[in-house]
């Protein structure tokens, strides 16, 4: 019989709580749900009002992985949904919004990574986030991403834009910034221009094109996730990797001090102590006053 729990007055069905999702560490589905419930105060503001794409892995990272963009069958009626534009204006999608703790617990029970757009559903034509995904091509690794991130930080600051780093929860780093008065197209153009500039400034380290033959030993500065249709892993989401690694906000000092990939590898049980020590390092992104116009 599927257990039912009550979360802020909503009845949420939970299933297979004893299932081991991460055999490498023995991390169970119950532990995953506990992580999301106890991290909700930091996570929910980064999900709110953003259509969510679910990267589901119900049998663990070694099982089948699949994206769910449309509202999944069986979604409770109390979960908020919204129509969002697609490439064809005549066929909008209806997607889930994770607006509160009951919705978060329900979604976590699906066993999913949370991915969100760089715009809110109220104004899909306006980008409010700028993102760079720094993806290392072996033998490069996250230490090399840190060097690129520090260059991008200074370059963005020169344009009056403050960036905030987080681990990808896999190999690299993400940089996020709050922007205003921009479209996804304009944000993408700006991000691409900076990626090209980074390649010119750090030619032995950076590549701005996705071509696989160019990427070994370099950091791919992926600017394309600023496109309106693209999504990026949400801060604090657990990733479908061999261990329950989290896309974890980090300090710029941690980026500057990184000398080994292990220094910036954070698992689910690392996050509560980090929140106690630092709070939400990406909270400034949520303050409209921190949003900067693109030059």
Automatic annotation (TrEMBL):
Keywords in alphabetical order, please. Answer: Ligase
Known Pfam families for this protein? LigD_Prim-Pol
Which PANTHER family does the record associate with it? BIFUNCTIONAL NON-HOMOLOGOUS END JOINING PROTEIN LIGD
Transmembrane spans: none
Q: Which InterPro entries match?
A: LigD_pol_dom, MtLigD_Pol-like, NHEJ_LigD
What's the protein called, per UniProt?
Answer: Non-homologous end-joining DNA ligase
Task: Specify the domain of life of the species encoding this protein.
Answer: Bacteria
This protein's record includes keyword Endoplasmic reticulum = no
MF terms in GO: DNA ligase (ATP) activity
What are the DNA ligase D polymerase domain coordinates in residue numbering? 28-281
EC number in record: 6.5.1.1
């Amino acid at each position: 019989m599927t257990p039912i729990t009550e979360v802020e007055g909503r009845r949420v069905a939970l299933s297979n709580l004893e299932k081991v999702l991460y055999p490498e560490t023995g991390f169970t589905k119950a532990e995953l749900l506990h992580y999301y419930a106890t991290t909700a105060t930091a996570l929910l503001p980064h999900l709110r009002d953003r259509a969510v794409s679910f990267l589901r892995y119900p049998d663990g990272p070694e099982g089948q992985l699949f994206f769910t963009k449309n509202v999944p069958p069986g979604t409770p009626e109390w979960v908020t949904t919204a129509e969002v534009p697609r490439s064809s204006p005549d066929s909008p999608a209806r997607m889930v919004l994770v607006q509160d703790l009951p919705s978060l617990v329900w979604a976590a029970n699906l066993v999913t990574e949370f991915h969100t757009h760089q715009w809110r559903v109220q104004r899909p034509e306006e980008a409010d986030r700028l993102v760079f995904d720094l993806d290392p091509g072996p033998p490069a690794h996250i230490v090399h991403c840190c060097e690129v991130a520090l260059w991008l930080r200074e370059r963005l600051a020169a344009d009056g834009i403050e960036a905030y780093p987080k681990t990808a929860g896999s190999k690299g780093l993400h940089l996020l910034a709050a922007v205003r008065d921009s479209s996804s197209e304009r944000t993408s153009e700006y991000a691409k221009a900076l990626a090209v500039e980074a390649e010119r400034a750090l030619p032995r380290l950076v590549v701005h094109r996705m071509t696989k033959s160019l990427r070994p030993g370099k950091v791919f500065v992926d600017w394309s996730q600023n496109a309106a249709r693209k999504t990026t892993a949400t801060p604090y989401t657990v990733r479908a990797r061999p261990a329950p690694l989290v896309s974890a906000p980090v300090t710029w000092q941690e980026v500057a001090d990184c000398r080994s990939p292990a220094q910036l590898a954070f698992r689910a049980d690392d996050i509560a102590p980090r929140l106690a020590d630092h709070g939400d390092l990406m909270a400034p992104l949520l303050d409209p006053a921190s949003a900067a116009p693109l030059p």
